[in-house]
Amino acid sequence: MSDDLEAAHGPLAEITSGGLYPFSLAMFVISACVSLAAFAYGVLLSILQPQVWQNSIIRVVVVAQLINCIRFIFRVLLTNVKINTESGCRAVMFLSDATSLLPVNLCIHCVVYLHLVVIHKVPPDLRWPRVVALTVASALSVVPPSFALYLPARLAGAASFCAFGRIPTRKQYEFTLYSYAIWTYLPGVIGIASVVAIAAHVVRTRRATQRALQASVAYYGPSQSVPRTGHTGMLHRALLTIIWFPITPILSLWLDALLVTVAYYRRRTYLWLEYVNIVLLCLQSFLLGLALVVNPTMRAARAKQARERRLARGAARAHERILPPPPLAPDSPGV
Q1: CATH number of 3-221+228-300
Q2: Per UniProt, which keywords does this protein have (predicted)?
Q3: CA distance linking residue 248 with residue 284, whole number of Å
Q4: What is the DSSP string of 246-298?
Q5: Is 249 exposed, middle or buried, given 0-12, 13-18 or 19+ CB atoms closer than 10 A?
Q6: Domain ranges of the chain
Q7: Structure pTM?
Q8: How far does Cα 86 stand from its chain's mean position?
Q9: Distance (Å, rounded) from C-alpha 13 to C-alpha 8?
Q10: pLDDT digits (tens, 9 = 90+) for 281-308
Q11: What mean pLDDT comes out for the span 252-264?
């Protein structure tokens, strides 16, 4: 790779440097295919079972998969495109940062919304909490990266946004810190705090339910028990769905921001950290896809669709059995 290509800004530099290029290109292609398959799966099941699309978390995860697919396709295309114009470099910086932040913040939006519903008892049918949380997540993903579209390059310590290299100067580091890095840490802390709060709530609820069941068995005998209180089953299934899939994207963004800091203070880059960063980045597609597959709403919709197909096949076979035999041809009259 030529020096000017390696000095380009954004994903172009990180996926074309040294021996990282073949590995990163393969990972991005695989991740784009996984995101596209998960998006198609969610849309198809929503068409077959329209009640699936009424779940706000399902809608957000499906849209996040589409953004992920666009993000990885965008990065793959950049491996074969050389950006020379100022407007092009600004657009690359904005699209790279925005498409990195938006899927992760949408995941955090899901966790925060579930936190509001589960712990603070916000009614799920209220629309304004979802709208507010989604607006904040979108604004934190789009507004800070948009600084690159209109701020003069001298504020970033460069003659042009095309002059950003892999080892930033002080002003370039500060610009990256305030326009990108800091906005990866704040939502991530909120998301992890919500996950921990939900986990603690579910553990407390399950323990209380187990104690009530044990007391019931001890008092009434093993043949009777008090009914379960609360929504522990729903909470446990929701926890299994959301507790893990935001963690890896958050860690990926944190490591991505940390790489900029390491490059600035150490005045060099570390290839093994770049490998770890790309693996975490691409795990986001797999975890979001897995979260979509194991979601209780999606599993119930798949079971309903399979049941409807079995009933339709059974009805068709029963209809074939009760059909009367075809009438015989009339005998020809004798001569």
Answers
A1: 1.20.1070.10
A2: Membrane, Transmembrane, Transmembrane helix
A3: 7
A4: THHHHHHHHHHHHHHHHHHHHSS--HHHHHHHHHHHHHHHHHHHHHHHH-HHH
A5: buried
A6: 3-221+228-300
A7: 0.75
A8: 31
A9: 5
A10: 888 888 888 878 877 778 888 888 888 8
A11: 82
